[in-house]
Amino acid sequence: MRQEKGAKVGMISQARVVWLVRRVARKIWFRAALISAASVIVAAFAGIVARAVPYHFTGDIGQDAVGTVLEIIASSMLAVTTFSLTAMVSAYSSATQLATPRATQLLISDRMSQNALSTFLGAFIFAIVGIIGLQTRLYGGQGRVLLLIATVFLVALVVVTLLRWIAHLAAFGRMSDVIDRVEDAARSAMLVFAKDPHGGGRPAEPLPADARPVLSETIGYVTHIDVGHLSSWSQRHGIAVHVAAIPGTLVHKGRALFHVVGSDNQYDRELAGAFTIERHRDFDHDPRLGLVALGEIAGRALAPATNDPGTAIEVLNALLRTLSELPADAAKTIGDLPPVYVPRPSIEELVRAGFAPIVREGAGEEEVAIRTFKVLAALGDALPHAREITQALASELQDNVECAMRGKAAIARTLAIH
């Protein structure tokens, strides 16, 4: 594996393979390449497969009959593909300007958009290869029949995909759609975090006196830690690893990725390969990023140039649903866990990540302040382990309301909720 561009290691854990496969499958080029390759295979081998079909079609289909249909598909699919790309780029730009740039990676990973673009591109390539085959006399009578059957199925698939794509565009990239996507990503990461706050390792402990730091060789964000890889090396060589940089942490050449106890620097490079460091944060294993993105959406909506309290209220509802899964700092049964110690984000850090922009920017809006008090109270009731931070944020909001809100009556109504 590699640290950004590459430090090779000898082993890759199953969890990391699954994570890498999922990341590749979400790339916009993956589905397009897969369907395009399938289109080339179907169109190119129709003539070859036709010779192996035992049944002989009695009718004869001329080259012009199939060629005309393929020419129509080729010309129309090129235009539809261009339109789809334009619509997708427009949605990305809209989300960046109205919501938060952090949501763009979620829109790029949208399955419906990728399926639509891949289908249209695949249909275009199928038609081009089919036309080339017809012009070069690749297909006989049997081959032209099979090519026509494949073309009919392709037309049906394109029509269904186009109808679904048109319906999808009605909401794609809109503010409500962006909030839902960010909430789903944040909640998914929170559920994974709640299931195992320490990512398969032991809870963090105070560093021993003989712990030796291993510094990062690159600058960027930790997006994934292969704890299984660290576990294998620690058990094999009898060492202990204390992780210092969890996913979402910005590291640099002066910051430690982890501390090692029980060995010199001979295994440092292999252990460092368990850390994936990239330029940008990723939602998968970073519950803080989803909360930060929700807070950014609310903060931008509350800016004087936008003045959209309704969006901030929607974000507050999303924060309530997401943070309801926040686990407590419960003692974890060690059992047979390897000597890999992984810290977790604090409860205060997670709650404040989502609410800080709203407490700061929403104090002057009566509706937002009232809803914020109610959501903080609901979180405090549902999560006793988060009550201290929710009360602290409510006190901060009270001070901000008294300073920022206009009108004594509005201030009285708002603080009455508190």
Structural write-up:
- The chain has 418 residues and is α/β, with parallel strands linked by helices.
- Helix 3 (63-98) runs antiparallel to helix 5 and helix 7 runs parallel beside helix 11 (309-323).
- The protein contains 15 helices and eight strands.
- The protein has helices at residues 14-26, 28-52, 63-98, 104-108, 111-135, 141-169, 175-195, 227-237, 268-272, 287-301, 309-323, 347-361, 366-382, 387-404, 408-417, and strands at residues 202-203, 212-215, 220-225, 240-243, 250-251, 256-261, 275-278, 340-342.
SSE layout:
Blueprint: H1 14-26, H2 28-52, H3 63-98, H4 104-108, H5 111-135, H6 141-169, H7 175-195, E1 202-203, E2 212-215, E3 220-225, H8 227-237, E4 240-243, E5 250-251, E6 256-261, H9 268-272, E7 275-278, H10 287-301, H11 309-323, E8 340-342, H12 347-361, H13 366-382, H14 387-404, H15 408-417
Parallel strand pairs: 1-8, 4-8
Antiparallel strand pairs: 2-6, 3-5, 3-7, 4-6
Helix pairs in contact: 2-5, 2-6, 3-5, 3-6, 5-6, 7-10, 7-11, 10-11, 10-12, 11-12, 11-13, 12-14, 13-14, 13-15
Brief characterization of the structure:
Helix content is 62%, strand content 7%.
In which range does the helix fraction lie?
55-70%
Numbering strands along the chain, what is their spatial order in the largest sheet? 1-8-4-6-2
| Computed CA radius of gyration, to the nearest angstrom | 28 Å
- Class of secondary structure makeup: alpha/beta
The DSSP helix count reads 15
Topology order in helix (H) and strand (E) letters? HHHHHHHEEEHEEEHEHHEHHHH
Mean pLDDT: 86
The unreliable regions are: 1-10
Distance between the termini: 52 Å
How many strand segments?
8
Major sheet: 5 strands, mixed
Shape verdict = flat
